[in-house]
């Protein structure tokens, strides 16, 4: 399950974060660890990586256009879905704000209103049917195990940076486009399921009203 999402500029300026229940066991501590990860990122760091954090959580991050997108997930949550989620929110964030994020006068959490999109997208990725469909439609995605994995203890106690340790396969980047299209389709299907019954009920009501008045 997706627990929290954070968006930082690569100079460690926080741009946006999801509204979460910080009272949930361990979540606030995981957000602190996200700040540690940001401090360890260098120009040579992997563009995608997974950081195992304790026995219950994994922090996945994606670096794109000098912006770092992080998501805190349960350890059992699909890594494929986590990176698909990051890919989708990064594309939307870039489309909405783009060069605006690089303005030196930008204040912390200046793009907090993006939380509404984070909330909607998170719901899609929490839906068991969406997870099943995404896995089925993208079962040919390159093995996400090729994404670098580190342990949070390496960062805490050894002071490691997140410099490149492995080469990401080009197929992972290519196939992520398919993954994004599938995610968008699932998002559209979820919207249809939500609004079609309302539209049908409204149509029936208007028809009955029209029929009654004409009698």
UniProtKB/TrEMBL annotation:
It is found in: Endoplasmic reticulum membrane; Golgi apparatus membrane. Residues 133-193 form the V-SNARE coiled-coil homology domain. SMART domains: Longin. It holds the Pfam family Longin. GO terms for cellular component: endoplasmic reticulum membrane; ER to Golgi transport vesicle membrane; Golgi membrane; SNARE complex. It is a single-pass type IV membrane protein. Residues 6-118 form the Longin domain. The keyword 4Fe-4S does not apply. One of its GO terms (biological process) is retrograde vesicle-mediated transport, Golgi to endoplasmic reticulum. GO terms for molecular function: SNAP receptor activity. InterPro entries: Longin-like_dom_sf, Longin_dom, Sec22, V_SNARE_CC. CDD domains: Longin, R-SNARE_SEC22. Keywords: Coiled coil, Endoplasmic reticulum, ER-Golgi transport, Golgi apparatus, Membrane, Protein transport, Transmembrane, Transmembrane helix, Transport. The chain crosses the membrane at residues 195-213. Belongs to the synaptobrevin family. This is Protein transport protein SEC22. It comes from Babjeviella inositovora NRRL Y-12698.
